[in-house]
Amino acid sequence: MTRSEFIHKIEDAVVLSTEGTGLFPSVVMAQAILETGDGNSTLADKYHNYFGIKADPMWKGETVYLFTTEYINEIPRRIREPFRVYDNALDSIRDRNLFLKQNPRYKDVFKAETAEDQIEELAKAGYATDPEYAAKLKSIINGSSLKYLDLKKK
User: What is the pTM of this model?
Assistant: First the structure.
């Protein structure tokens, strides 16, 4: 799937899921693009997990174990981890938003006034282990002109 096809596929779900949350659709979309390789990862394509949300002991839904790259002391390592499985894109996006809301370390993410600030807050809170995560998200937003999504949010 191309990036444009992926954006078109989940655009409505992204915008709908962010209404009333303080989250920027452009950031949510950029994360989905980065985390799934434009929707082409097995985790996204087969299990509808668009954000690499792992299945911790609190997760009561279906789980799948897959290999992922985690940065440990800034060194990439391939490890096998449990991930949450969803029925569709909207469930995945809503759960990701709930995951952020329920975790106090992400409280400043919801206070951000711009998409760029929100990305910095996600990185500061440790959303991903990749030290280049924030720069990659900003590059995706700018390179794919995703700010139009923020204007669609009600």
Answer: 0.89
Q: What is the pLDDT along the chain (154 residues), one digit of tens a residue?
A: 999 999 999 999 999 999 999 999 999 999 999 999 999 999 999 999 999 999 999 899 999 999 988 888 888 899 999 999 999 999 999 999 999 999 999 999 999 999 999 999 999 999 988 899 999 999 999 999 999 999 998 7
Q: Judge whether 132 counts as a catalytic residue.
A: no
Q: What is the CATH number of the domain that holds 117?
A: 1.10.530.10
Q: Please tell me which residue in 45, 70, 87, 132 is annotated as part of the active site.
A: 70
**Catalytic choice (35, 38, 95, 150):** 95
- Expressed as residue numbers, the domain containing 23 is 3-41+87-152
Q: How far apart are the C-alpha atoms of 9 and 29, rounded to whole Å?
A: 11
User: DSSP H helical segments within the chain, as ranges?
Assistant: 3-18, 25-36, 42-45, 89-102, 115-124, 133-143, 148-152
Q: Is 104 within the bounds of a domain?
A: yes
70 is catalytic: yes
Split into its structural domains, the chain has a count of 1
